[in-house]
Automatic annotation (TrEMBL):
InterPro entries: YkvI-like. It comes from the Bacteria. The chain crosses the membrane at residues 7-28, 40-60, 89-113, 119-137, 149-166, 186-205, 217-240, 267-290, 302-319, 325-343. Keywords: Membrane, Transmembrane, Transmembrane helix. It comes from Paenibacillus chartarius. This is Membrane protein YkvI.
Length: 352
């Protein structure tokens, strides 16, 4: 009985860590869902369904591959996917861009403090840095515990918003929302979204696969996490569709949607957005730390401090400039990475 409860707890932690890694600042703000799904009209329901299938299938597969090859960091997985030489280059490129995305997340924390709390952006950066250090030094279990707090709150807000939307005028807009975009762009969007998010999520999902030495827990956790991501995508899409096209003008659409619920819930949702930024940030720093430990014979704490300090200086460039420069660059490599992930069999499915 105790073992069964422990397994269920591990499954939930894996699922919440998966969701927390995917649901970053762009997701929590609503901007990613708007750009990749809602603007494509009623077809978004089908592309979200496809994305959900891909998140379940490939999220599980990534963790099982990490489990099978006993990967310590995502470099081990990339070597397995691409071979020694190409895998090393992919890992180096991933390290650079992953650090860039880490800087984007830190810059985003400064933006939240400035725009939503009317405090200095530097306050946001420094609070995030110090809090991150104390979580990261405690390892993967601490990161999973943080996600176990933030993700349920995010789910609660999303459900609340969905119920409110379905019972308000325009609640059925998602069923007949029109679009002028081509079918090519509509059906390419879910592949771009999934490939980009999974390519960045490898920094934490690979260590999860290596840490949780139980295939059944990884299978169930990946299934639950992938389904939750799909349901969250659909719920936010429905809420955004009810406010189209006007909602598209806002940088943080979800903050606008929460306004009818009052000041208290608005403030709590700001915490949710910050929490999602924070969980993505600590996951990325943790993944980079594991990667650098393969190259440097220095204490782990020194590497963590160095990454945090360097990301602080890079974060001074600001959220939008970093976002618009780095995300398209990483997207070019993400598709080829996704193809290799699909192509490589896991140990159980590999020919004997």
């Amino acid at each position: 009985m105790k073992s069964s409860v422990s397994s269920i707890g591990s499954i939930i932690k894996v699922a919440f860590t998966y969701v927390g890694t995917i649901v970053g600042a762009g997701f929590a703000s609503g901007q990613e869902i708007l750009q990749f799904y809602t603007r494509y009209g009623w077809m978004a329901e089908f592309t979200i369904a496809l994305s959900s299938i891909l998140f379940v299938w490939l999220g599980i597969k990534m963790m099982l591959l990490a489990y099978d090859v006993k990967a310590v960091s995502y470099e081990d997985l990339n070597r397995h996917l691409f071979g020694q030489r190409v895998g090393n280059w992919i890992s180096i490129f991933s390290l650079i861009v992953l650090f860039g995305i880490t800087s984007v997340m830190l810059a985003a924390s400064g933006s939240v403090f400035a725009e939503q709390l009317h405090l200095s952006p530097q306050t946001g950066l420094l609070v995030t840095l110090f809090a991150s250090y104390f979580v990261i030094v405690k390892g993967m279990n601490a990161i999973m515990n943080v996600n176990s707090i933030v993700v349920p709150i995010m789910v609660m807000f999303t459900v609340l918003l969905l119920v409110y939307t379905l019972n308000s005028p325009g609640g059925d807009s998602w069923l007949h929302l029109s679009t002028d975009h081509s079918m090519t762009r509509i059906w390419l969007a879910p592949f771009l979204y999934v490939s980009f998010n999974l390519a960045t999520a490898q920094a934490v999902l690979v260590p999860v696969g290596a840490t949780i030495r139980n295939r059944n827990v990884l299978l169930a956790g990946g299934l639950l996490g992938g389904v939750m991501i799909g349901l969250l995508l659909l719920a936010v899409h429905i809420a955004l569709a009810a406010q189209m096209p006007g909602i598209a003008q806002f940088d943080i659409p979800m903050a606008h949607l929460i306004r009818p619920f009052g000041t208290t819930l608005q403030f709590l949702y700001i915490f949710v957005i910050y929490g999602e930024i924070f969980t993505t940030y600590i996951a990325n720093v943790y993944g980079i730390t594991l990667q650098l430990q393969n190259y440097m014979r220095v204490p782990r704490q020194v590497i963590i401090v160095a990454i945090l300090t360097l990301s602080y200086f890079c974060g001074q460039f600001g959220f939008k400039p970093l976002l618009t420069t780095l995300y398209p660059l990483f997207g070019l490599v993400s598709i080829s990475w996704l193809v290799m992930l699909v192509w490589r069999p896991t140990a159980r499915s590999a020919p004997r």
